[in-house]
Amino acid sequence: MAPKCRPRYEVSKQPSSPDTVQDYKDARWATLVKTTYIDPDSTTRTWESAERLTRPAGSLIDGVGIVAILQHPSDPSAPPSILLQKQFRPPIDAVTIEVPAGLIDAGETAEQCALRELKEETGYVGTVVGEGFGVSPVMFNDPGFCNTNLHMVHVTVDLSKPENQNPKPELEDNEFIECFSVPLTDLYAACRRFEKEGFAIDARVGTFAEGIEVAKRWKLV
Amino acid sequence: MAPKCRPRYEVSKQPSSPDTVQDYKDARWATLVKTTYIDPDSTTRTWESAERLTRPAGSLIDGVGIVAILQHPSDPSAPPSILLQKQFRPPIDAVTIEVPAGLIDAGETAEQCALRELKEETGYVGTVVGEGFGVSPVMFNDPGFCNTNLHMVHVTVDLSKPENQNPKPELEDNEFIECFSVPLTDLYAACRRFEKEGFAIDARVGTFAEGIEVAKRWKLV
């Protein structure tokens, strides 16, 4: 059942150098900003934070994360599974367990970005979920530190469709991504297992998994 | 049932200035780094990212987020509710819906940090959940952009205890936090409503809410 997207990713054993301080003038992708604000006690304060330089003019978001649920209409008893990725992330020098994701292009909607990135990164053709659950509120990844944000876009992938029989990713030269899937109901235990195996857990995956686990523990259905 | 922690937070209407570019040498809280790495095709590449300057030496994490569930042992029919906060976040110039959270002190465990921050920010005295569910895997907030990370710490707050009858936060001079609670089963709908009202949604809250909602939709209990 695990989708085959790429040969297994091999992390380079060459040491990375995460402590080279960046000269601000050279930076093309990220910047620091200082915000001045007045608090409720009328005290003027400042706050340092980081921003991407890639958000298109006019866009309210940097990108999307994609919750893609693999479905087997011919096998209704098969548990719904979430499509995940292993990808090396230089900022943390580790291979991360994350959802398919990407930065938004100018003029693109969140839905368009999600279906494009899903196809590019995994080869799968998906359908955005309806009933007002397809595109999440704008979510801010770490709003005390940076302004980066995204919509989570919920997508179903019908594995019986011809276009999903032999998914072929179209990766950039600098993208090395391995796709796999986990039954939703096992996602929390899988995150625990992946951490023990040395993978890093993306918070969007980890807190999503905790939500499922809490719903099970408190019988919220 | 809503806990009373602070008078309602008033956002200053003074415009903030988020576009003042920070001179690197002045920065005390955040920095940019450039990482060099060798990809699986043996190509040397670089990656720009942001880091906090506050992580204590020897600590693997920047801080904790706290999933605090309010419980009424005397009223077992009351739905479990999650403790949330409204807090102005200068990096996004908005009041955010978030869980109690804080940076870790040197030598502190995640559990200690969570109980300390919970008491400081909300006044409540909590107990860390057992059964291996108390402290989450390390989660990375946006690992393509920055190295910031946290443990989510799961805590219960027994509202029948004497110390939780009249919670008194102990906030810093620059902290203005309003606490409230939402039934877990309503959290996703509440996030939708808060966004419509102009609040920003922290991704740790939003994806947690989506996990609960997905568990309900797929009947994963």
Automatic annotation (TrEMBL), chains A, B:
GO molecular function: ADP-ribose diphosphatase activity
Highest taxon of source: Eukaryota
Start and end residues of each Nudix hydrolase domain: 59-205
Cross-referenced Gene3D superfamilies: Nucleoside Triphosphate Pyrophosphohydrolase
GO CC entries: cytosol; nucleus
Residue numbers spanned by region Disordered: 1-21
Family matches, as InterPro entries: Nudix_hydrolase, NUDIX_hydrolase-like_dom_sf, NUDIX_hydrolase_CS, NUDIX_hydrolase_dom
Keywords: Hydrolase
Pfam family, one: NUDIX
CDD domains associated with the record: NUDIX_ADPRase_Nudt5
Protein's GO biological process: nucleoside phosphate metabolic process; ribose phosphate metabolic process
Family membership: Belongs to the Nudix hydrolase family.
Name this polypeptide is given: Putative ADP-ribose pyrophosphatase
Source species of the chain: Lepidopterella palustris CBS 459.81
Organismal lineage: Eukaryota, Fungi, Dikarya, Ascomycota, Pezizomycotina
